[in-house]
Amino acid sequence: GTVAFRGRERLSFAYLLLRKFVGDKAVATVMRKGRKIGNLEFSLESRKSLISRYLVPENARPSYYIHSGLVFTVLSHPYLATCFGSHWEDNPYTPLDILNVALTGTPEFDGEQAVVLSHVLSSELTTNFECHHQLLKFVDNTRIRSLKELYDFVEGAMASTPIGSDRFLEFKFGQSNRTIVTSVDKAREAESRILEDNMITSPVSQDLLMSSQSFPQFHL
Description:
By secondary structure, this protein is α+β, with helices and mostly antiparallel strands. It is 25% helix and 26% strand. It is built from six helices and eleven strands. Strands 5, 6, 7, 8, 9, 10 and 11 form a seven-stranded antiparallel sheet that branches. The N and C termini lie far apart (68 Å). The mean pLDDT is 88.
């Protein structure tokens, strides 16, 4: 719609929004069946987004976690710009579920993140895997709300599973619940080889390692 500006001139309704700042007071008129009921005054706040606009601290390396050749990281504006260009909102290759979270997602608690499968490293465990830029939803039916939750859950499962127990982990992605199943034993056996082949020094970023609990390891 439009609003009156000067004389008979009119501007887009967005003009009124652009004149306001966070912390300003706004007054809304409540109407019912065409009749004015009263006015409602409220303070304007910025919308909290589920994804970060910047890496914190500035120019920091992205957090990541690697399991069985699957590289997970946090969805952010820098990630989207790197993968899909500065105009990622208009890029038809940006997955719809990721686009929806990036534009409309709001956190339900402090520290909540959107976790994505960003890459699949070449290895004997990932042969014929062609999925990337997938939004992670669940691991073994447990909702994943941050990269730390993912790391703690998977590493906890690895540490508590004896060798030869034939345990598997089920990762579900996106709205369609696309599934990848990994073997705990095979992930253990192949980890150092996958990292060496891809010239990666650690399966987890230092910031994530420092913020998470430590797990005992079963030695092969």
